[in-house]
Task: structure prediction
Amino acid sequence: MTLPVRHDDTVRSRRKSRSALQADSIPAPGRIASGTSETGAERKRNASARPSASQCTAAPLEPSRLENAVRAAVGEQNYQHWFGRSCRLQVSGDRLLIRVPNPFILNWMLKRFRTELSVAAQRLLGPSGVCHFEVDAGLSGVVESATVTESVAVAAEGSGAGNSARAVPERTIADQPALLAVAEVGATARRQVPQKVDSATSDVAGRRRFRDFSSFVAGECNSLAVLAARQICGNPGQKFNPLFIYGSTGTGKTHLLEAIYSQMRADHPKLRTMYLTSEAFTNYFTAALAGRTVASFRQKFRNVDVLIVDNIEFLDNKRATQEEFLHTVVQVIEHGGQVVISSDRHPKMLTKHREELTTRFLSGLVCRMEDPDEETRRRLVHSLSVGCQTVFSAGVVELLVRRGGRGARELQGVVNQLHTFSQLTGRKITESVVRELLGGLQDECRRLIRIGDVEKAVCEVFGVSATDLRSASRRKALAVPRAIAMFLSRKMTKCAYREIGAWFGGRDHSTVVAAEKRVSAIVISGEAPGLPTLTSCRSMSELIDYLERQVSSMAS
Result:
């Protein structure tokens, strides 16, 4: 007689069989799943032979085996760049621990190597093996000594293009740890955490030694800029923010910015101080665009305490970079940081910059650095002679002040030339030697200035076109710049009145003579009629001096 089988008994039987089958198919820790099952007797024998979990962790893997497994999973190049110097590999039970110095590297590894490392953990520790990432701030000091050559991928505004959308620009690995580790804590704790200067400055620092205030020669020509620089070093972020320093080539702008950087590092070692050129900023930004790492780029630059950027005029016509730089400046200032910027012209003269950026520059303190005056040049010659351990007589010093050039770089070149001559020939540097070496130098090196150079400078300052300047219009908005252009053409070129008049719309020589006399009278009187709003010049005399420097710098 067959007894009926209840439905619930059948279900329990099936579940029991399925559970037994699944238990049989799971391999022991440390084994690779083979797809076969064990019999009951085999399970008993293997269970007695298998080590416990505590026994597994008590015998750690050899470091070489661990490293080789990770190297095989990610590739030799990736291992060297991301694991060899910046990470620590460990095994804890069935976990492959990868300790990294900061969230940036952690996020990148999760995005790029998650699958490969999970497979490596299973091959190394068995099917139960997992890969686990941890941020270990103690590794930052190790990372900062390990650098990788930076290759800048250039986007739309650069000179080249990246080849891979997933490529990340190689860099000094110390770029991110200091900044990102603090960002994880919160913005309010930024100033309390000692940090190393990041790589944008470290790259520069590795190639040159930053100058300081002790070697900077101050005078009436740069007194306001120097006083403001010292003030912000004492209280960064409190006033004069941003500090905008401008002046022509050779006035000492870069020296002053380096001095600010050196003083900040000395007085405020806990602040993150970054110094770089606007060209370097552009390169970092375009590399971030090409490598799709804009988020980390912004954390790197917007979380600094002091941002010092030289030669901002490099951003002309770079609209995307200008917008990014604007937001960077705003972010640094709003979080209590200090921004210092230098340029070869007044913010109002940065006509190829976004208006929002130039007005931001104007909202702080704008300081002009003029060409060294006679007394400043005298002290500069003395300082340069001490630097090269050469003693100049009073007569030689005065001769160099008069004929050695207007800017600091020209004077430095002349002093170096005299020092080298004295060392190679053994002759003492006298006034006659100086005249012999420098005689005719100014005439030989004088640039040929054309009327077109004058016209271009005047048009840029007044915001008019060359066509308007040469037109028959007598409107004041055109008559004043036209008269100034004729005055400067007569003063700075060897062209006759007739040639100048012909250039500016076919006018006769009497028109040029009248313009010359009118501008000369205004200069003498100190009046300021019709001055352009793009400059900070307060008189016609200052405007003429400014235009002369502009013409000299662009003349070929």
Observations:
- The first strand starts at residue 88 and ends at 92.
- The chain has four domains: 56-143, 174-368, 374-445, 451-554.
